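EI: anyone free to look at a 309-residue chain?
SC: sure, send it
EI:
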Amino acid sequence: MVSNLEKNEAVLETHLPLTRVAVGKVRDIYSVGADKLLIVTTDRLSAFDVVMPNPIPLKGKVLNQITIFWQDYFKDLIPQHIITSDVDKMELPAELIKNFRREIEGRSMLVKKAQPLEIECVVRGYITGSGWKDYRKTGMVCGHKLLPGMKQCEKLPEPIFTPSTKAKSGHDINIDFGEAIRIAGKEIAQKARELSILLYKKGQEYAASKGIIIADTKFEFGVLNGELILIDEILTPDSSRFWPADRYETGRDQPSFDKQIVRNYLETLAWDKRPPGPELPAGIIEKTTAAYCEIFKRLTGKDIPGSDL
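SC: here you go
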């Protein structure tokens, strides 16, 4: 468990001797030549679009390696940006690998540089989260008129594409498909919608065989040489809601294998969901690490090294 981890296991921020081109809520991104990026997934956790002050040990490794798992699973469906996740094959300076192996091994990947779309590609298979809140107010979610009388966490007749904006600061904003077309262009938006629903259905089918419900998820796409490719994280506990199928029941919140654990805790506080984020108790941190490691093991059949679960 977390209490048994070495104190230096958690990586809150990286400082590699490369040009850092972006610091995301979770990932540090470095330039490698003119056409490649090194993406390092830290143990930072963002909730309500605010980065928490405490890292979640092993979280970055789970996110990175579960993405690698799905990249292989989807390799025949769509081109992707990954070049390699093997540190020794990244053609990085030998001195960098020697001195910073702990910061990058298991939590990084070398990728092709693409132009990201300016929309988040969200797919919902169940009505929960912000979608549930919108439905209760309007009967709709991002322009989709839903059946009346639906219950919290109820399965939708078919998955729906509910894109959002990409906020550089503050909260992402849910938009309808017409706005997605305005931002990304009709052809790209339609292709992104088609691929998002396809990948969600394929992923959910696999997860169901492991006793897991993927309630919703977010995909990221980019354009490289005029082609739409899959980039960033894929079906991770940060970008998705994972529920145990044997404990699923409509009309209430579900037990989860994702950062909903932290969200639920934060909802009990008198916090306005603006930076800085509040300190997380050790018990919440440990429970969250355990959930991330558990979903990785359920989906892949493997343990994250160091999890000690």
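EI: The helical segments are 59-73, 94-104, 129-138, 177-184, 186-208, 260-266, 282-300.
SC: 👍
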